[in-house]
Structures are given as structure tokens and as C-alpha cells.
Amino acid sequence: MDQRPLLPSDGLKKDPYGAHEPPIYQTSTFVFDRAADAAAAFAGETAGYVYTRINNPTVAAWERKLAALESAGTGSEAWALAYGSGMGAATAAILACVKQGDHVVGVRPLVDNTFATPVLQQPLALGADLVVQSSTKYLGGHGTVVGGGVIARDKAFVAGPLLGIRKVFGSVPSPFDTWLLLQGVKTLELRVERATTTAAKIVAVLAKHPKVAWIRYPGLPSDPGHEVAKKQMKGFGAMIAFGIRGGTEAGRRFMDALQVAKRAVSLGCTDTLIEHPASMTHAHLSPEELTEAGITADLIRVSVGLEDADELEGDLLRALDVAAAGVTVAAGR
Ligand SMILES: Cc1ncc(COP(=O)(O)O)c(C=O)c1O
User: Fold this and answer.
1) Domain membership of residue 317 as a residue range
2) How many domains does the chain have?
């Protein structure tokens, strides 16, 4: 029952009213003129929308955009499905590849391209079969949407098992959320370029700061991922991890002293978001699991945003000074 129009055009060349922006089709279901039309649509004999858990014109417009973004460098077509979250997308991709009792001996390479974004890295062109995106992050870019996507070149896989899994598990995004994504993604390239430039500046300062014990950023020649990143990425991105001397307590003082960057999880937002994984996103892990995942008590993760680079640098340096002085200040705004 695959009646979802996966083709780049769903039959309409443009909006019937000439709207510049795509309308939000905020409807759960679609009405048929005749019973025979409904039967034909459900049998997959005609393309058309039937129910928003299965397909929706606003969601489909976002899916075409998503596919185009991730295959921009390949010159070939890709197909995409959107989800209600990045975790929903990753789960669906895995469930569509394996079934109960399977033994995995030859695997489909699946790349989570959330940190890199399609602007900096094109996994399908590099040989991956599947790409997963948390569109919550850079694609949406403004911290207003939770969403995800799976992108592949194999149309039969997308229209078959992948769509089948989504129909059954129901992890669809809302038309309004995909409309927000269509707006946010327009500035993706500009945002990624700006954040990457600022990140490089911040890394240069942090790397020689006495309060910083270690730093991970793929743009640093000393970073274990540098050579691979140099070979396959157009830039090194805007995610930084560093260890602060003084461990958890110093980390807490640093976090509390921030006034420009926001103390928050997530990433890829217009605002710089800083988190302490051991006490926030990964607090549920045991000490052994934290060690296995490479998450040390002193680790601080920075997702660089679009603030003025000097202002952001000043904020981080001041917070490091506060952490070094061993005093606690009132939390910033
Ligand atoms: C790299 C990466 N992939 C996937 C996810 C999951 O995305 P979501 O929170 O949209 O479910 C996250 C969430 O932080 C992430 O950082």
C-alpha cells in the first residue's frame, strides 16, 4: 500500500494561489470525492494523500528538501522520510534493516550526519547507504522543533521497509514542525559557516588556556579525527569538547558564570549551548559506562552559535577565570 508520492513533484507545479511559502496542511485526513477514488489511492494505483500518519503535503515538501540537501554533492537522487525526532529516525532506520532472528554479517553503512550537517559532509557521496539526521539541531537551527530524518539512495528501501516501519510505529512529524524546518533550513549554510568560523577562533583561545586540561576539535592537527575530517569534510564544524582543570566543581563554577552562552543540552542552535554531560545528558550512566563512552567528569561540550565571536570569547574566558579562582558567582542571565 505505497501510495505516497515519493517523486520530486506531487503533481502540483506551484501553489494554486501562487503563495511564496508552502502552506501548512494542518489536517489529519484527506477527503475523497468518490469511494472509487479512495479505493484507488489506498491500493496505490493513484498518488495522493490519505492520512497524515502516512503522508502529508507539508511533510512531503520537507522530505524532498531533506533528500536534496543530503545528495547535493552526488548529482544523483536520494529519498527521505521525516520523523518526529532524531531518535525516531535512527530507530526506524535500524528496524528497517534487520528483523527478529537476523544475524548481522554484512551491514548497510549508516551515518549520523547531525554534527557535520550536509553543508560540511555528504555521506551518500562518500559511500554510505543511509544517513540519519536529528533535524532538531542544525537543520531547524532555531531551537523550536524536535525532528529527524532518514535519507537513502535506495528508493525501494525508503518506499518499502522504511515507510512501512514509520506507518506502524507512527513516529511522524507534524505539518507545522516540518514547515518550521522548511523556514529554518534556508539559512543552514550561512549559519554553519558563521558558527564554524567562530568555533575555530574559540578553539585557538581554549587550546592554550592554562585552565583547559585537554580539548577535542577535528580542526586541530593533534585531534585523532583530524586527518579523516580534513579528507572528507568541507569544514570542521562548530562542536567543541574540552576538559576543565579542577574537575566537576570547577566545571560547575564555569557553567554558572556564563552570561552569553546558555546552559542547555542540544546543539546546532543560533545560541551557543553549553552542557556538562556527566551531570546532564549522560547522568543516568554508571561510572563504568561513562568511562567506556569516554565521558569524563571534567568534560564540557560547547555548541557554538551565532553570537558575536568576541563577546562569546569574553564570556568563556571570564567563566574560566571564575572557575580558576574557586569562587561561585550568581548564575548569568
Ligand atoms: C548526533 C545526534 N544524533 C541524534 C540525536 C537524537 O536526536 P533527537 O533529540 O532529535 O531525537 C542527537 C540528540 O542529541 C544527537 O546529538
Assistant:
1) 188-325
2) 2
The answer for residues whose C-beta is within 8 angstroms of residue 301's C-beta and 6 or more apart is: 239, 240, 241, 267, 274, 275, 276, 277
Torsions phi, psi for 83 (to 5 deg): -135, 170
* Residue 178 belongs to a domain: no
118 CA distance to ligand 1 centroid (A)? 15
Range from 63-77, 156-170, 254-268 carrying the lowest mean pLDDT: 63-77
* CA of residue 208 to ligand 1 center, whole Å: 30
Instruction: Examine the domain organization and report whether 198 and 240 are in the same domain.
Output: yes
Q: Return the best residue to mutate from 114, 178, 266 for the ligand 1 pocket (most ligand atoms within 8 A of CB).
A: 114
Cell of 122: 555528504
Q: Do residues 120 and 98 touch, judged by C-beta distance below 8 A? A: no
Do 141 and 40 belong together in one domain? Answer: yes
Q: What is the pTM of this model?
A: 0.92
Rounded to the nearest 5°, which phi and psi values hold at 262? -100, 140
What is the Cα–Cα distance from 286 to 188, expressed in whole angstroms?
A: 37
